[in-house]
Amino acid sequence: MKVIIVAGGNYEEDLVKSLINETEEDVFIIGADRGALSLILSGIKIDLAIGDFDSVTEEERETINTYSREVVGLNPLKDATDLEWAIDNALFKCRIKRGYYNTIYLFAATGTRLDHTFANINLLYKVLKENDDYMKIKAYIIDGHNRIRLLDERKRHVFYKDQLFGKYVSFLPFMGKVDKVTLKGFKYETDEAEFTEGNSLGISNEAKEDMLSVYFESGKLLMFESRD
User: Which one is predicted more confidently, 134 or 142?
Assistant: First the structure.
């Protein structure tokens, strides 16, 4: 089952609606700050609107209050972004219904504010840390050109060419060195390579075979699927 969170970055209505419409699964929808207004103006019902709502007018705030099933107002003086609060609520939803909601999609999490974009990519780690032997949650940041996820160590990650978001696939180390990276089925394969911060190794790979696999021994690896 899916949790969809829309933040206050570049909102792409068709992208969100396509994900909602392509599945018959239960979907829990969260609007983070101005993301709530974006959803409402798209005619999408919101289960939860959360934020300090400093990016909307009083009239728009009333619209959010009227058309959201639940609204949580936050103090603007806080140590976490509205999106992080939204993710915390999504994780709580996943925990209380363990195994029911298992995928979190983050939309409008990229945009002109690169500091927010970078912080939002870092929030993928918050979701990854929740995973244990009993609960597995996947998280994606999606915009019109990219799908971003964070891969964990000592697991064989398998992907299929026809399910990739775009032509290009890039792998970048997250929070330090990634050891023994083995990429199979790609145009540029690796065999126990070391991916370190401070260089561009891993950028702009492409699928060569129908089935692709990624394995690494230690660290965390960001995967970007991109299209021009």
Answer: 142
Within 13 Å, how many C-alpha atoms sit on residue 75's CB side?
Answer: 3
Cross-strand pairs, 31: 6, 49
Query: CB within 8 A of 43, min separation 6: which ones?
Result: none
DSSP state of 55: T
**Tens digit of each residue's pLDDT (9 = 90 or more) over 47-81:** 999 999 999 999 999 999 999 999 999 998 889 99
Asked whether 93 and 133 are in contact (CB, 8 A), the reply is: no
C-alpha–C-alpha distance, residues 58 and 145, integer Å: 33
Helix (H, G, I), strand (E, B) or coil at 91: helix
d(CA 92, CA 33): 19
Instruction: Determine which helix (DSSP H) or strand (DSSP E) holds 212, and give its type and residue range.
Output: strand 211-215
**pTM surpassing 0.90?**
yes
Please, which contacts does 21-25 make with residues 24 or more away whose CB atoms are closer than 8 Å? 25/1
